[in-house]
Amino acid sequence: MTERSSIGPVEARRVAFAEPFVFAAGKALPHWELVYETYGRLNAARTNAILVCHALSGHHHVAGWYADNPKNVGWWDNMIGPGKPIDTERFFVVGVNNLGGCHGSTGPASINPDTQEPWGADFPVVTVPDWVRAQAKLADHLGIDQWAAVVGGSLGGMQALQWTIDLPERVRHALVIAAAPKLTAENIAFNDVARQAIITDPDFHGGHFYRHGTRPQRGLRLARMLGHITYLSDDQMAEKFGRKRRAGAGSYGFDVEFEVESYLHYQGDKFAGIFDANTYLLMTRALDYFDPAAPYGDDLAAALASAKAGFLVISFSTDWRFSPARSREIVNALVKNKQPVSYAEIASQHGHDSFLMDDRHYHAVVAAYMANVKT
Known about the structure:
The protein is an alpha/beta fold. The chain has ten helices and 16 strands.
């Protein structure tokens, strides 16, 4: 790894807000904190700022690495940095860990001031509009009146879309990648199975597992394994694993015998070791609730009518979790309103996770769009 290939070493920052944050669900935090990272320099006019919204299991560490842990590279490092599609030589990029997260921002593992114990299951249910309002507070703190662009993939793309609806004056461009205007029943069903795996884990303790000194790792592991299957494509799994067997397989038992099983177990264990079960519940519920057209009689065009941003919508051919047809719903609504939108459907074998991959065509589309974003 060299300085030329990445933004280089970075540090996370923290901001505390003394005023209460009232969630859409009605509950409130008396005070709260967000953890974030920034890359590049904010120009004198403060017009070159880009917000990167994180996806389901994402966080604030988007690009670069930590000096004390060079292997901990940001999750979108192939997209953001000097000379990259989101060029930090031009833009000031902000990555944030959302409220309810488990990487430093106030979340279920934070101390509830009323009980002096972790919030656990008592942490307020959070929605995408809640995150947008919290991110707006961060923008205020950074002195950013208007984002040059709000960018996100998957759940992050939904946040970008919500920004254009809730705070249209504060967004000039929105990049909505591998997203959908709302979940299908099938997607909600996947999320429920994942949550049930966690909730029925004996170590879950109603979401207050912190006080028991344990974690529902088995449930979280199963939830991640299920999710991971849906993020990949059948073609990708066939190419990567096929029916390859592990050494010693064929014992006519139920140990791990196929390579794809080994891969899923590894991914599940890895995730369960670093993520918080209550945060996973909150994030998947926020996905379920996301439906910006609902207040407009299920009319997405009406919901987007007030948006002032230019849009880039990107989908991937093998993404069956949020298929290209779902992205075209967004595009069609914008076209109906005669609002500026560019759309690209990228041929990819990587399923929903394509938005994280180093795909030349995909990155070229983003780079071309961003080159026309004025700073």
